[in-house]
Amino acid sequence: MRLRKVKGAAETIAAHPNIVVQNEKELKGNWQSVFEKEQPLYIEVGMGKGQFVIGMAQKNPHLNFIGIEKFDSVMVRALEKVIEAGELPNLKLLKIDADELTEIFEENEVAGVYLNFSDPWPKPRHAKRRLTHENFLKLYQTIMKEDGAIRFKTDNRLLFEYSLASLSQYGMILQDVALDLHKREDLEWNVMTEYEQKFSAKGQPIYRLEAVFAQEK
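Structure for tRNA (guanine-N(7)-)-methyltransferase, as requested:
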């Protein structure tokens, strides 16, 4: 995936440590300290320009959220949207790669994980880069509470089919699967991403699933 560089992005990000956390490794096991209130913590891995995680924070003031993105040029756009949205004491941003999750979060520290319109990495040799590959599932399982869920949305049918198989083979329990999310009538809870708005407006189906890790007996 080729991204257009944004001039001054790194400097802009560094200038807002109150929104984009800078000392993330020092906060492992103590993430609640960066929020105004101690509340269940949810993360979005690969937040893009931030519309979803901002919307979730606005809609759910009783929960804390962290939007995670690894690219400066994308992170700075999300930062701009957070600033425009105004004060959100239950939202922070974090610039890391997804494979660093267990270095940043303690075991059982996260209540749930959102994956929205992740890069499909369509070539078979790149399967390990997909955010629903078993290598990433292990990371999510480590940092999430036992009853935590992964919630995944995409417009890419092949990635969705791959993800269904990957999660099932890992032993996860699928609780909710939608092959065309926007045909549902009970969508007041759904917060759309930028991509979701774009593709659903064109009539493309949006695929969604929720899954939890099987508990050992």
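Strands lie at 41-45, 64-68, 91-94, 110-116, 144-154, 172-178, 207-213.
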